[in-house]
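Follow-up to my earlier ticket, as requested here are the two runs.
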Amino acid sequence: MGCSLIPTTDKGTPAAFYPFLGAFQNGIQNEQGNGGCRWGFGNAMPGGNNFGGNAQYGTLLFSNYLIFGGGGTFRTITNNFRQILPNPCPAGGNQNQQ
């Protein structure tokens, strides 16, 4: 209970900084230049794909945990967010077709 996408401070206000990933193609959004792909981690990365910013963390993930001594019963706990994102960077670096 009480989960939030942006964590709160001890005063109950949203945290001022909560980092997320961003991807950059040769420094230009949506371009596959000779510089290849680069990743960034922060919360202010202009010019790249930030996968929706804080929304990239996705929705709450419900996980089942076995109860010790419970004869195979389990308890569902929500302690993470989950989002599966496509990798915009080609394997092995830049894959230009010539």
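Run two:
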Amino acid sequence: MLNDMFASTPIPVLEQLVNFNQSRHAVLASNIANVDTPGYRTRDLSVEQFQTRLKGAITDRDQSLTSLSSSKPLGVDPFDKVRDGLNNITYHDKSNVGLEQQVAEITKNHMQHNLALTILNSQFRLLQTAVSERA
């Protein structure tokens, strides 16, 4: 019931963004921890692939919300594909990236994570205000 109530809000999208950023942060931190390890190859999660999957899930959600005769069964989450994709989009490249590059990537990732949490927090404050009927 709660998933259906939030289905048309930005909350599911922000949830996926926060989850992706948390996973990517762990991978980037591992790269920094192993920067001096001989033979270590950097790893990363593909931001482009995540964005493509997320865009597809948003499109699927919007189409199912706008069609009156939706054939989508209740309880099916269009963001399942995005969430499942986090398990297999890790890749190894053939060259190591320097520490500066990894720190820059982790900083960008951290800022995106904080932005998503800030927007999510404001969405919940709006919901709380609407429920408590206070302006």
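The only thing I checked on run two: The helical segments are 2-6, 11-33, 47-66, 80-85, 99-132. Let me know what else you need.
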